[in-house]
Amino acid sequence: MQNSPKWVAARDELERPNAARLYDYYLGGAHNFAVDREFAAGSPALIPTAEMIQHSRAFLRRAVRACVANGIRQFLDLGSGIPTAGNVHEVAHQDDPTCRVVYVDNDCATVAHGRTMLRDVANVAFAEADIRDAKAVLTSAEVTSLLDLSQPVAVLMVAILPYVFDDDSPVDVVAAYRDGIVPGSHLVLSHLTADNRPELVEELVRVSTQRMARITARSKAEVEPLLEGFDLLEPGLVLVSTWRGDGVPETDAETVSYGAVGVKR
């Protein structure tokens, strides 16, 4: 029988899969349970989930490095999940250890895990908040104590907006953060899309909604308004695998997510 690690927030965490821990598993981390691994093993073979998540993380790493190269030293990672291998602070601190990072998630167990993992890491904090409430996030104790919003900051929305549904108006959610940061700040955004492999993505949405959490895919035309008010860095809004990556997409997993980095005007 699996023992409960000291960073588990509740007993039922051992009994049901968790999106943040699944991301950790697919990225080769150690902060996941048997129930997560069993869920991953039972996913339909046609859905290359691990490869999709790895491409998303590679985009995140390239985007963070681009932000640091542009002078950004503050990062707000919305819907971050567990800060597993290759996450924002690790990448940013490789270039400049003074970079400050606040992770944000609304799942109390994920926040508890993250805070335990990060307790000895300098210049990093973890806030518990709903990303749909920009005011609550931007005025949280972690943000106000670690970040200076009078200076440019990078707001990261990587693979989180599929969890923000039309009823919650993702355009307004992004705009609220845009209005809360100064010109020169960066937005790093990626989003699931069914534009290129509709059957695959529809099955992914169905399985996720049925077995774990509801998600939604959006077309490029639906993603573009989310970037209003930002000047996009080259190469613009493209598949994440091609955003300053190598070559052209060769697998299905490389065609199911758009990404962009923009600078607030």
Radius of gyration: 17 Å
* CATH architecture identity: 3-Layer(aba) Sandwich
The name of the CATH topology is: Rossmann fold
Tell me how many strands there are: 8
Share in β-strands: 15-25%
**What is the CATH class name?**
Alpha Beta
* Share in helix: 25-40%
The low-confidence parts are 1-11
How many H/I helices? 10
Written account of the structure:
By secondary structure, the protein is an alpha/beta fold. It has a single domain, classed as Vaccinia Virus protein VP39 (Rossmann fold), CATH 3.40.50. It is 36% helix and 15% strand. Strands 1, 2, 3, 4, 5, 6, 7 and 8 form an eight-stranded mixed beta sheet that branches. Strand 2, helix 5 and strand 3 form a beta-alpha-beta unit. Helix 1 packs across helix 2 and helix 3 packs parallel to helix 4. It starts with 18 loop residues before the first helix and ends with a strand. This is S-adenosyl methyltransferase. InterPro entries: SAM-dependent_MTases_sf (IPR029063), SAM_dep_MeTrfase_SAV2177_type (IPR006764). It holds the Pfam family Methyltransf_19.
